[in-house]
Amino acid sequence: MVPSARPRKLAKVPFVELADGRLQGVVSSGSDIGRVYVSSVAAGTYAFACSTNNNRPCGGARGGFCNHIRALVDEAVLQYGVARVARYLKAELTGEDPDAHTVFSAMSSTRPAQGDSSAAAQVFSRFLRHLSYLELAPTTAPLPEMQWFPTTRAVA
Amino acid sequence: MVPDDEGGGLMRADLLTDAVDGLDEALAAVDGFDDALVDGLLRPGPGQAAGLAGIADAVAGSPPAGRVAEAAEKAAAGAAGEDHFVALAAARTALLGSVHDALVARVEEAVGRPRAEETGTAPADGAEPAVNLLVAARSWLCDLARAGWRGIDHELVAGASAVVSAMLPEPGLRRLAALLDGFAAELAASCPGATLEQVPVRRWADLWSRALLLTLPGAASVPAVAEVTGRLLPLGVDLQEHATAVQAQVHAVFEPDGGGAPRLVRASVSAPKPDTVVGAGLWQLLRPHMSLLAAVSEGRAMELDGMPVTGEGDLVWEDGRARMGEPADVFATARVALPSAAASATAPLDRHPARIAVPVLLEGYAVEEGDGRVAFQVAGERVAVDVDRVPAAGPLTPEVVASSGACVGLLRWDDGEFLLQPLAVERTVRKKAVAVHAGAWAGGTADKAGVRAEKAATDAVTVLRERAGRLLRK
Q: Which residue in A has a C-alpha nearest to residue B290's C-alpha?
């Protein structure tokens, strides 16, 4: 079983996930309430991409990780725990007590290349799919299959 | 033995630790098949063939014997089609069904309550959900079986996503959708399978075979067979969740109006959810859809009027058919009403050890603690307590359980032993019995820590709704 996500504040990074071989997510713009950045880092190569939901490139992500990617790593570590994030991204952690900063630096120091931003549309649509879970109607018909998914006090 | 005069506390705990005849043999056959799924059935080796033959042998005396034998042979040759996989999943389900029955018989003997009466099952309701989605799900599951747990990768696992998205809005497909969604998320977190340290072999085979059988039209339909009127006395709440779904089940004793035998029932409410809605947020999501959760928090009974119930004893809750009743103490219910409450028979497809959740009352035990584990010594027998199943958003903690003197819980079975999942405990504080309930916060709370958790959860959902409002449908 997968431990449930650790509670975190969602205002800055409403969506983060480890999927499609990437750490990817959506970061709210600090200046424009209607704008979000779609950011991602690929596992293994750390190829990164960051652009707005209207497909404009992020000015901060030229030549290296931008602050949106930093926020993404921070929140991913909060949500999933540092070990799972590092394992997924294949980031080598050195030293004791690794944290989000350790993961960020381990990747950033390899001077990763900028990836193409073709994934942005896919990430954004995963975010919309994620949001759509709030719109689905609850039911009082029993779901016996949920017996396989007991709540656990464990968090990531 | 607990002396008789302890009333509802009577339980033959010795029966829970005694061996069950035939159990090991049935589970060995299941394990043989499950092992075959680890490396996948694309090019099976001799070890896998033996596991497949084993499960066919185990059901040799039963009606589907011929089909299962053929399926095992085809699978061993790496040539299994979808029907063959379904036959193998059915054989595995039947074996675990027999394990379920043997364990339930043992529990009934131990708790000494009236035996479940067969109420019969109703035929599946006419609405046949989109067959194309069922076909798509089946095809994904068969691809999984061919690849094996060691062969899964992100691309294969992602194949479930579109099917799940299309299924979730369909009420008739919610069971399969919630199962596939949780299963796929678990597989995704374990990719690539080749480097996985440990494979949860039986668990994934459980989820796989169950999902496969639910792709058969009508399999997931368990319609209401009656309407009941009378008093509902809650015993406690069992919470289940995976990243994108949550279900709360209230276990209760139902006393029909005008006398008649009391029975054990459940009332469930579930919802899909974003993975960032956790803790108190789960209660917030469910609360508006079942007034019973408020009754549980307030320690009240509810009066039901024509509430639909399935043959399995599941109330299909409608708020309009229930109203708040008198205060009702869970421990009084457990001592007075529970001993004569009869359980319903489990639907054939749902017979599986994981489904066992029998309300019991334990009193007069000694607590054993160590390694972060808790166990109760009951009449000289050790009953392990599963404190992990107690919801985090609630006042019942492992420490409170360990300091208790009476416990209402669900008797479960996992990995070879019976376990007790606490729903509520009673402990003595300044010579007074004080009850602490696992589901105390289900309907809301004034508890300080609870209020904080509620606030954090409200903020999370507010942000998501705001983002959804701005970005969805644009």
A: A140
Per-residue pLDDT tens digits for B305-318: 999 999 999 999 99
| Assigned token pair, B276 | 């960032």
Q: Where do the structural domains in chain A lie, given as residue ranges?
A: 15-119
B15 is a domain residue: no
Q: Please list the residues that pair with A27 across neighbouring strands.
A: A37
Question: How far is CA B35 from each of CA B31, B74, B205, B375, rounded to the nearest angstrom?
Answer: 6, 17, 9, 32
Same structural domain for residues B298 and B172? no
Answer yes or no: do B89 and B160 share one domain: yes
Question: Which contacts of A80-88 are long-range, i.e. CB under 8 A and separated by 24 or more positions?
Answer: A80/A5, A80/A6, A80/A18, A80/A156, A81/A3, A81/A6, A81/A155, A81/A156, A84/A18, A84/A156, A84/B189, A85/A18, A85/A23, A88/A18, A88/A23, A88/A43
Is B417 in the A-facing interface, judged by CB distances under 8 Å? no
pLDDT in tens, B100-153: 999 999 999 999 887 766 655 566 665 666 899 999 999 999 999 999 999 999
- Tell which wins on pLDDT, B186 or B474: B186
Contact B457, B246 (CB under 8 A): no
Put simply, the answer to whether A134 touches B203 (Cβ < 8 Å) is no
pLDDT higher than threshold 60 for residue B326: yes
The ipTM value here is 0.94
Residues B208 and B226 in one domain: no
Q: Alpha carbon B201 to chain centroid distance?
A: 19
The 8 Å CB, 24+ separation contacts for B413-416 are B413/B103, B413/B353, B413/B356, B414/B353, B414/B354, B414/B386
**Binary contact (B189, A135; C-beta < 8 A):** no
pLDDT given for residue B87 in this prediction: 98
Residues 267-296 of B with CB under 8 A from A: 267-276, 278-279, 281, 285-286, 289-290
Q: Do residues B250 and B200 both lie within one domain? A: no
Q: In this structure, are strands B417-429 and B381-385 parallel, antiparallel, or unpaired?
A: parallel
Nearest by CB to residue B268, choosing from A19, A135, A143, is A143
Considering only the beta carbons, identify the residue of A20, A36, A144 that sits closest to B355: A144
